[in-house]
Amino acid sequence: MTQQVTRGIKISVETDFEGVFFKEYKIRFAFGYRITIENQSNDSVQLTSRFWKIKDALNKTEIVQGEGVIGEKPILRPGESHSYQSGCLLTSPFGAMNGHYNMVNFTSTRNFKVKIPSFQLSAPFALN
């Protein structure tokens, strides 16, 4: 598990290899990840948007950004957490992801970024 805390917001990431698929006549490697966002601060916060950089071993980089996460903009009071699952397809059996969440602090009304730590994606059959 990969973890990081930014301004009292703890991000934890777990990954899984989901399998090999063919899409658009090309082989794709599917990975799933589970994110837990935990508010360890003293203020209520809301996740408003996300930014992801997804890179595979062939140096192909994909940028994904948008509102919320999986259609939600969770509000987290102090001590609360929110978990969700998502995934991505790579053109190689290895890759990495990182990024950030844009959040708003309800006490100060200020926007801030919470770093999503870099985490590895790797197919177990490709490891030596």
From TrEMBL:
Domain of life: Bacteria
Membrane-crossing segments per the record: none
Ranges for domain ApaG: 3-128
Pfam families with a match to the protein in the record: DUF525 (PF04379)
Matches recorded under PROSITE patterns: APAG (PS51087)
Name this polypeptide is given: Co2+/Mg2+ efflux protein ApaG
Gene coding for it: apaG
NCBIfam families noted in UniProt: PRK05461.1 (NF003967)
Species whose genome carries this gene: Autumnicola edwardsiae
